Amino acid sequence: MTKWLGPAVALGVLGVLVWRLGTGPILDGLHRVDTGALAAGSAIAGLTTVCCAWRWRMVARSLGIELPLGEAVAAYYRSLFLNVALPGGVVGDVHRGIRHGRDTHDVARGLRAVAWERAAGQVVQLTLTVAVLLVATSPVRPALPLVALALLAAAAVVAWRMRTAEARELRGLVDRRAWPAVALASALVVAGHTVTFLIAAQTAGVTEPLSRMVPLALLVLLAAALPNVGGWGPREGVTAWAFGAAGLGAAQGVTTAVVYGVMVFAAVLPGAAVLVVAWLGRSRPAPGLGAADA
């Protein structure tokens, strides 16, 4: 029952938005998406996916398992597509960890590599977001000092409760050869996603300066990591709230979120091609075998 709680909440958020704002902002967002925005989003996603794959490769290497960059990029595209296409937002990551673990004959370590890779990216994203929100004008700025203290306390508790094996893996991750690459890749991913959101906002008709839009974009990107249904739910709810609190209108926020969601879906479609190619490879008979033998 617990596994359905996140998707249920996400659907509830979408239902409340439709109830309060109607379908107009959603339809407006779908109408405003153009080929230029889709092309830009896909190009940026190509760069961020390579950065994510590079980060995953560095984390896996710190755990003692090799991962060629080309294979990592293809697997990451497949993972992103599954995360967007299926409820929960993490199915693709689990699949990626299991597949890599089977390829290296250590499923547990493959799953841990994915978990550490995602955690490292989220830590960098959260750190950058809090740093920007502490100095920039945003709806949450008054509460940021308390939020920062709470995050530091939570990090201390996690470090204190960490088991010996986990602490050893974390020390390997923060090795002076690994952490700069992981941090840089994560920062580039956050920058790419932020630019994509800004393009979505401009496509939706928002003309506010970057100084106002970047903090809102970072808030929305944090919400996008919450349990969702195909990427939808918390992202639209937080965008509506943030835009409304910033004086831009909740409806404008939903329209922007819809444009961003369509851009994201289009950008991860190469992952579907990876799935199809893999399926065809498994279903094709090996050389020298008949169909019955295969």
Describe, in plain words, how this protein is organized in 3D:
With 294 residues, the chain is an all-alpha fold. It has one domain. Helix content is 76%, strand content 0%. It has 13 helices and no strands. It has helices at 5-21, 24-32, 35-62, 69-85, 91-103, 107-135, 144-161, 164-173, 179-203, 210-223, 234-245, 250-267, 270-283. α6 (107-135) packs across α9 and α6 (107-135) packs antiparallel against α10 (210-223). The longest helix has 29 residues, at 107-135.
Structural class: mainly alpha
Q: Which radius of gyration do the C-alpha atoms yield?
A: 20 Å
Mean pLDDT: 86
Strand % is under 5%
Residue windows where pLDDT falls under 50 for at least 5 positions: none
Structure characteristics:
294 residues, mainly alpha, 13 helices, 0% strand
Q: How do you describe this structure in short?
A:
With 294 residues, the protein is mostly helical. 76% of the residues lie in helices and 0% in strands. It has helices at residues 5-21, 24-32, 35-62, 69-85, 91-103, 107-135, 144-161, 164-173, 179-203, 210-223, 234-245, 250-267, 270-283.
